[in-house]
Amino acid sequence: MGIMIPFLDEKVNSVIHEFIPAERANHYMPSLKAGSIMKVDCFEVDRCSSMYKIIHHPFLICFISPTIIDEVITGTPEINLQS
Fold it and tell me: What is the CATH code for 2-71?
């Protein structure tokens, strides 16, 4: 169990599945805000199991204990709303 979130990768204009394990959810929940642009550092990339796939991307981002997320306030990228 955990939290599944679709992330928009603005560099390649695609959406990637993101997973926060249940044991880390309380740590990251205060930092996650709807509509915010976040910078994520120190994460793992894994193959996305077809059983839990919410998007068509073959990989997912996994938050691990050293993962850091920060809201981007200045210099935010332009996001194609059709994505």
Answer: 2.40.50.140
